[in-house]
Amino acid sequence: MTQPDHDVAAHRADLVMPYGPGEVEIVAPPYRRDNPLQFRKNPLNRHGWTLVGKRVVMDFGMDAMVDRAAALTYYAVLSLAPTVLALYSIAVLLLPRDKEAVAELLAELVAMYVPKELRSDALAFLQNVVGSPSQSTVALIVSVLVSLLSASAYVRSFSRNANVIYGRVEGRRLPVIWLTMWLLTIVLVAGAVLLIFASLLRESLVTGVMRPIAEPLGLTQTVEYLTQIFLPVWGWVRIPVMVAVSVLLVALLYYFSPNVRPGRFRLLTLGSFFALLVVGVVWALFGLYLSTIGVRSAYGAFGIILALLVVLWAMNIVLLLGLKIDAEVLRAKELQMGLDSEHHIQAQPRAMDAVKFRLQQQRWADHSAREIKGRNA
């Protein structure tokens, strides 16, 4: 363990363990220094921005961003199957039993979101799925639980990658980190469902799904309000609402994933702005691919699936890069304050219980190594 100076040792010190094998670092208590992220008091100068750019480019390969994004993509794909099952169960529960109304609603949705070459096959598939019998309530409960578990695996993986980017191991206890990641997963999944709902909300969907439910309950006036007043306004505010939800989701992911307490919660950072902007461009290019090439390519529908996997992979690379930008901005601002952040970011950890346990394991392993060395001396 490195020897702290007497000034820091007089106060409670936080323990930070750099990622991988190494010694435990002692970080000065937060009340002993100002927040380096206070923009007005500590703006980055030209040399600071240069360091941020150098570190982001240099560590892109060293931190294996491409490989880590591939692992995140795997967990994202792993959660697709139960999510589709959950959507299927919801559709069976909510859609009206009138086959003609269902067929009309599905045809309109397919015409709106599916490329022309795939519309007949997609419509036949959806009609077969929605029209088939199912224990929808049980399937919905099971699929929601499994999808949350799969999505939680993605969030936990992102948390591990975030700690690598900040250069430290996890300090929170296992129950704490699991509870935190589960709560974060629930919020992220709810936000993702809200984004999907916002993109699909149309008059045909409201009348086709909600009217059969509203009539027995005497809520037809609510449906009329939605179709005549709310939806015309929603057409103007839909994109801003989706952007605001996306900003909030990325901010939560960046703030709570790593074992770092960088300061107050901020909705938008330089890294999150970069990530959101590039992710938006990536999905726009994917939409352009669907409208221009899509099934016309030699691979047909299989090519669309491959393109979707590439888009998810690129999206995860960009999310990791955005977090890396925030980490290096924090490092540069710490350096401007005179902190020794050349090799390790000095921000306060969220917890250090796991670091203490890891330190005990390290001492136990070092003791065994010394015994082996002594016996063979």
What is the strand and helix layout of this fold?
Elements: H1 6-9, E1 14-16, E2 25-27, H2 46-62, H3 65-78, H4 80-94, H5 99-113, H6 119-131, H7 136-166, H8 174-200, H9 203-217, H10 220-256, H11 270-292, H12 301-336, H13 353-375
Antiparallel strand pairs: 1-2
How is this structure best summarized?
It is built from 13 helices and two strands; from the N terminus they run αββαααααααααααα. It is mostly helical and 377 residues long. The two termini are 26 Å apart.
3D architecture notes:
This protein has one domain. Strand 1 (14-16) and strand 2 (25-27) form a beta hairpin. It has helices at 6-9, 46-62, 65-78, 80-94, 99-113, 119-131, 136-166, 174-200, 203-217, 220-256, 270-292, 301-336, 353-375; strands at 14-16, 25-27. It is elongated, with a radius of gyration of 26 Å. A two-stranded antiparallel ribbon has the order 1-2. The two termini are 26 Å apart. Helix 5 packs antiparallel against helix 6 (119-131). It is an all-alpha fold and 377 residues long. The relative contact order is 0.15. The chain crosses the membrane at residues 72-95, 136-155, 176-201, 233-255, 267-286, 298-323. This is Ribonuclease BN-like family protein. One of its GO terms (cellular component) is plasma membrane.
